[in-house]
Every structure is written in structure tokens, then in C-alpha cells.
Write a structure and sequence with these properties.
seven-stranded mixed β-sheet; mainly beta; globular
Length: 124
């Protein structure tokens, strides 16, 4: 079955950087999307970046454009989220998810397969 495992979360000061990894398994081929999502306490889960693994096409939500970069390593079946210029408002649990045809790749409800999440905490 499809499995996604996130890693790389932790604590960082504002202005710092972190790189999250999402290792995928159980998926045949690369014609699917992987999205990164986050959920802060008391807030709804939001989509922040997504990549179509077949073409490498990417999408970002406005709040992370220019600061976060989603990328992939096809040999490792791993998708990364490089985060720079971190802000306290980036504090959240970060999840990756996969879906063949989400239609709206930044909408959480469009994804069925999810990882367990990794905590990112940014202090001012």
C-alpha cells in the first residue's frame, strides 16, 4: 500500500532554514502529485506546495513563494521541502500527501494518502 514518511522537522529561529523529506513507497510509476501541507494549532490544514512527479511541475501558495522550494529525487522516491527565511507563523505540523489526480493540488481534501506529519517550530 501507499506509504509516506516525513522527516526533517525540528526547532529553528526566525530567519533560519530547514529541509523536510517525504519518502514515498508503494506507488507505481511517477504520474502522481505529492503535496506538502501544514496545520497550525487551532487552524485548518493548508496546502503550501505540490509537485507533479512525472513532469516536475510545481505549485506554491502565496505565503511561501520565494521562501520554500519543493523538489524531488527520483532515485530515492523522495520529495523535499526546502524552507528558508522561516517565520514564527510557519510553526505547524507539516504533512506530505500523494494523489494521482487531485485536480486542485493544494487542497487537502483532494488527497487520500497521508504521512504521519513532522513538527516544525520557529521561534522569534
Amino acid at each position: 500500500q501507499v506509504q509516506l514518511v516525513e522527516s526533517g522537522g525540528g526547532s529553528e529561529q526566525a530567519g533560519g532554514s530547514l529541509r523536510l523529506s517525504c519518502a514515498t513507497s508503494g506507488i507505481t510509476g511517477r504520474k502522481y502529485w505529492v503535496g506538502w501541507f501544514r496545520q497550525a494549532p487551532g487552524k485548518e490544514r493548508e496546502g503550501i506546495a505540490a509537485i507533479y512527479r512525472w513532469t516536475g511541475s510545481t505549485l506554491y501558495t502565496d505565503s511561501v513563494k520565494g521562501r520554500f522550494t519543493i523538489s524531488q529525487d527520483n532515485a530515492k522516491d523522495t520529495v523535499y521541502l526546502q524552507m528558508h527565511s522561516l517565520k514564527p507563523e510557519d510553526t505547524a505540523i507539516y504533512y506530505c500527501a500523494s494523489e494521482t489526480s487531485p485536480l486542485l493540488p493544494l487542497v487537502p481534501s483532494r488527497y487520500k494518502s497521508w504521512g504521519q506529519g513532522t513538527q516544525v517550530s520557529v521561534s522569534s
